[in-house]
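The pair is quoted verbatim underneath.

:::
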Amino acid sequence: MRWVRAFTLGEILGFGLLPATGGALVHLATASSSDAARACAMYLAAVALGFGEGAVLARFQLGPLRARFARVDRRRWVLHTGAAASVAWALGMLGPTLDELTPLPLAVQVTLGVIAGVLALLSIGGVQARLLREHAERPARWLWANVLGWLLGVPFTFVTPSLVPDDAGPAWFAAAFAVGGGLMGLTAGVVTGFALVWMRPRQPRTRR
């Protein structure tokens, strides 16, 4: 299916080459900095590079998406998805970054993690569903399909890097992030692909 292939390639490139590789470069560049400075630099880099990940993914999505919803605006789809991905990274990295700056009680970490996680899962799907309101019937399906797809897919991005030994070279970690991103994209692509098949184009209103 074109959509699943596009989603997978978009995440291999978007996640494997932007946030992962960029984060590694920032980590090396701040090696002599304090822990607080490094945490802040990594947070800002993740937010900025997260936009790139979302924009790359959106660009790959456009081909199969416009085959079904031809009037979707290319520029808005890319920019809005990139912004949503940036927000998701900001939310996902907030708890670990704050804990690095000042140790947080476990209850605060858990509460913050749950709230941030829920909002992050809603970000991309929510923005894209809003963009599809003019083109598709029942666009809320897109939101919930994205929530499920990302919920099932994101864990791969934690599992694959954890399998790489700590003393492995940067290339191994980059490859692990690319594989994790690909598996995440494949999973989310399959779930959202089913939603895309079932979503029907909105019929234009006729004037009486």
About this structure: The longest helix spans residues 35-68. The helical segments are 2-17, 19-29, 35-68, 74-101, 106-132, 140-153, 156-162, 170-198. The chain is about 80% helix and 0% strand. The mean pLDDT is 89.
